[in-house]
Amino acid sequence: MSNIVILTGAGISAESGIETFRAETGLWAQHRVEDVATPEGFGRNPDLVVDFYNARRASAASADPNAAHVALARLEAEHTGDVLLVTQNVDDLHERGGSQNLIHMHGALNSALCAVCDHRWPAPMVMAAGDPCPACAAPAARPDIVWFGEMPYQMERIFEAISRADIFAAIGTSGNVYPAAGFVAEAARIGAQTIEINLEPSAVGSQFDDALLGPATQTVPDWVAQILKG
Ligand code: OAD
Asked: Would the pLDDT of 157 be above 90?
């Protein structure tokens, strides 16, 4: 019985039609990170930031989970050990694909957060900067997204799962953003078997024991079938 921790990034949703960040024509080629993905950018121009995430929310709502999302849900349902899925993605394609044991370490588009009292509630499809918080009434709604300079969610739970992992897989992530890019080093340190499943080797690709290169809709179902065969 093996315990598995899986980290996913934008590449797993690419074939569902959701733009990645660091492709040549990706989101970070179209928008300045410091404008739309930092607390300072939100402070300077909250409308611009809220509009950026409104567009991401609309794009996620019109996308469907693909074979890679569905395969990971199948792994969780059928594997006898623990399977924890940690995603950097803010779309909800993993949950719509059937995954349940899931951590959104960078937040979620379908959640709103009060900047004053930390209350969370389901985000409307179109948020407006200054929407009132349903709990404290402060006009302080913000997207429930972890921006650069903020602490990703549930790090303690993630490192606890990695400390018990036999297998660590990273899928569709470029290995540029920490702390997620550091998970492979931690998994290797405790002796887990590590595999990178990506279109191309990532920035931390040399730290993995194995690599499976290709589009996620092919590689992930193949990998899951192999694990379930034992
Ligand atoms: P990136 O856009 O940096 O990387 C996406 C990775 O997916 C690349 O290595 C691609 O080669 C790979 N890829 C693309 N299409 C694929 C496919 N069909 N199958 C398999 N792999 C594919 O996205 P992330 O690594 O997720 O954070 O980015 C990490 C974080 O940076 C994001 O969560 C976001 C961003 O800034 C915040 O906004 C806080």
From this structure: yes
Q: Which residues contact 146 (CB under 8 A, 6 or more apart)?
A: 105, 106, 107, 152, 153
The answer to whether residue 230 scores a pLDDT higher than 90 is no
pLDDT band at 83 (very low <50, low <70, confident <90, very high): very high
The neighbouring-strand residues paired with 212 are 197
Query: For atom 23 of ligand 1, which residue has the closest CA?
Result: 10
Q: Give the nearest ligand 1 atom to 90 CA.
A: 33
Taking residues 82-91, report their average pLDDT. 98
CATH classification of 19-62+109-145 is 3.50.50.60, yes or no? no
104 is catalytic: no
Q: Ligand 1 atom 39: the closest Cα is on which residue?
A: 147
pLDDT at 217 (0 to 100): 98
d(CA 139, CA 145): 18
Per-chain mean pLDDT for the chain: 97
Ligand 1 atom with least separation from CA of 107: 39
100 exposed, middle or buried (CB, 10 Å; 0-12, 13-18, 19+)?
A: exposed
- Superfamily of domain 1-18+65-106+152-230 in CATH is TPP-binding domain (3.40.50.1220)
pTM: 0.98
CA of 77 to the centre of ligand 1 (A): 26
Domains 1-18+65-106+152-230 and 19-62+109-145 equal at CATH topology level: no
